[in-house]
Specification:
Elements lengths: L14 H13 L4 H25 L1 H12 L6 H21 L3 H19 L4 H17 L6 H9 L4
Helix pairs in contact: 2-4, 2-6, 3-4, 4-5, 5-6
Amino acid sequence: MTSTTLSPGSTSGNPVVALYGGLLNLAEKIPLSIAQLASRVAVAHVFWNSAQSKLASWPITQQLFAMEYQVPILPPDIAAVLATAAELGGAVLLFLGLFARLGALALLGVVAVIQLFVFPGSWGEHLLWASLLFFILSRGAGNISIDYLARRYFLADR
């Protein structure tokens, strides 16, 4: 009878470990730009819908900012306009991948205000949004974006 010695990291002899290793190798082949696109679209969708609901009934939005949201320092009517503009603008920038890092930064500001002053108990949802936004801020919009095309066009000669 012969004995074989498995070196550390070897998958020989264990089909579960071999399968897991194969799945990891397959997952690592997913382009980062797909994750960046999915992150941009997902978070843009959330803030686009939020802005649309504000615009659908502006008097109710102003009432919510005056009575329920109560952002400190800013008057409710200005806070409502700024929040709606940031949500719309940030969502469009993220969706298109145009100045995506700027859009992510603006929406991180919105998330911070919501978390600190409006709905501090909803930290799990805010952390999810912030995670996607930090990913976009740190890694950019990816290859499937206007940012990528603009960079290739404008920096092609340099």
